[in-house]
Amino acid sequence: QNMGKEKRTRKFALAKRIMSSQDPRSARNKEKAAKKEEQEKKKQLTVDGAEVRHLEKSSAALYFTYNTQLGPPYHIIIDTNFINFSIQNKLDIEKAMMDCLFAKCIPCITDCVMAELEKLGQKYRVALKLAKNPNFMRLPCIHKGTYADDCIVDRVSQHKCYIVATCDRDLKRRIRKVPGVPIMYITQRKFSIERMPDAFGAPRS
């Protein structure tokens, strides 16, 4: 018996469509376009034909790299992972901060750090409970999104009266680029601080 061949129709919806490397929607091309636009903006020329240079204004709070706005009571912005590491090392945040700086410390928590802790779910409920401590100062956020690192960097760039407490390497690297902002971190089951003038007990860098 001669069986007829089954007709197969090609399913176009299931066929993978590969995006062209020249497609303007690809992330790489978007980045290139943004960089090009930025460079064009920077290359604004004056009447004489000389290039205009935009230099960042140095903060009035700084005396060279010494931050004159820092002083007790210290306001310390806490990052999400700093709370988690404090719990792991069985450290009382307020007491350990005072042991580190020998002065009154006010831990501060931004709205986006709170949102990050809430997103982490049931596993980090102890950290969330600790963050809701009435002794911790809440700093409201007015930006979009809940990415805490950008928020913290922007805040300390504008207001030099804060110390940042974090164990995140990337965030530390970003904050080191901002002059006059000390960084608190955990080492050998205690808090330590870097870039702080007259920091007792801090390891010499």
Topology:
Layout: H1 27-42, E1 62-63, E2 66-67, E3 74-78, H2 80-88, H3 93-101, E4 105-110, H4 111-120, H5 125-131, E5 137-139, H6 148-158, E6 162-165, H7 169-176, E7 183-187, E8 190-194
Parallel strand pairs: 3-4, 3-6, 4-5, 6-7
Antiparallel strand pairs: 1-2, 7-8
Write up this protein.
The structure is a single chain. By secondary structure, the protein is an alpha/beta fold. Helices cover 34% and strands 16% of the residues. It contains seven helices and eight strands. The protein has helices at 27-42, 80-88, 93-101, 111-120, 125-131, 148-158, 169-176; strands at residues 62-63, 66-67, 74-78, 105-110, 137-139, 162-165, 183-187, 190-194. The strands form two sheets. It has a six-stranded mixed beta sheet with strand order 5-4-3-6-7-8, sandwiched between helices. A two-stranded antiparallel sheet has the order 1-2. Helix 2 crosses helix 5 (125-131) and helix 4 packs antiparallel against helix 5 (125-131). The chain is flat, with a radius of gyration of 25 Å. The mean pLDDT is 80.
Query: What is the total tally of β strands?
Result: 8
Q: What gross morphology would you assign?
A: flat
The strand order across the widest sheet is 5-4-3-6-7-8
Could you tell me how far the N terminus lies from the C terminus, measured between alpha carbons in angstroms? 88 Å
